[in-house]
Design goal:
Blueprint: E1 15-17, E2 23-25, H1 26-38, H2 51-62, H3 70-73, E3 77-78, E4 86-97, E5 103-113, E6 117-118, H4 120-131, E7 134-135, H5 137-152, E8 156-165, H6 166-169, E9 180-187, H7 188-191, H8 193-205
Parallel strand pairs: 4-7
Antiparallel strand pairs: 1-2, 3-6, 4-5, 5-8, 8-9
Helix pairs in contact: 1-2, 4-5
């Protein structure tokens, strides 16, 4: 877990433990942000004086998924007889593009044929686990599907992610309405066209 400092607190105790147990110097991180700010504005003016600390704190908060273990999140299961597809649609997420450190946001649709049945909230937590990291959407999609496949031993898994990327909307080509869609299919959802069609139909209606 990140053990940083709160609003208005001193940064004297600067050595902290960040994501994945990394020991970092918070003051050095804030100085790096201050140096970046200096390239475009005066980091000592009133509106920016607290910005370095806020940026470091926000980065840690937005990447706290590194501290989550998918095996733990999906460890509580139910021995409920079920051989029909389970679909959870529209799980909202915010992630950080690892190329520009700009956010991308959207929704995740998950379908699986159990295997083991897991609580609804655990799938949302799994999305948070992988989205709250430095990411690309393609990898995040596969990681969610692979984690479900590994820990719930389903007969099939499908994940569809729809995302809008700030790195495309506020810079570069500046196409704000573009939506990226990625998918990952495993097991019966690859092999059985009717199962795949059922999943996609359910995603459209939910």
């Amino acid at each position: 877990m990140v053990s940083g400092i709160g609003e208005g607190e001193s940064t004297v105790a600067s050595v902290v433990t960040a994501a994945q147990g990394r020991v970092v110097d918070q003051v050095a991180l804030e100085d790096a942000v201050r140096l970046l700010l200096r390239s475009v504005d005066d980091p000592e003016r009133e509106g920016l004086i607290e910005t370095p600390r806020r940026v470091v704190k926000a980065l840690w908060e937005m990447t706290r998924g590194y501290n989550d273990d998918p095996a733990v999140l999906l460890s509580k299961t139910f021995n409920e007889p079920c051989d029909e597809m389970i679909v959870v649609s529209g799980i909202a997420f915010t992630s950080l593009c690892e190329h520009h450190l700009l956010p991308f946001t959207g929704t995740v649709d998950i379908g699986y044929i159990p295997g083991k049945v897991v609580g609804l909230s655990k799938l949302a937590r799994l999305v948070d686990c992988f989205s709250r990291r430095l990411q690309i959407q393609e990898r995040m999609t596969s990681q969610i599907a692979d984690a479900i496949g590994e820990h719930l031993t389903p007969k099939g898994v499908a994940v569809v992610v729809r995302g809008r990327h700030a790195c495309m909307s506020c810079r570069g080509v500046r196409k704000s309405e573009a939506v990226m869609v990625t998918s990952a299919m495993r097991g019966r959802l690859i092999e059985d066209a009717s199962a795949r069609a059922e999943f996609l139909a359910l995603c459209r209606t939910l």
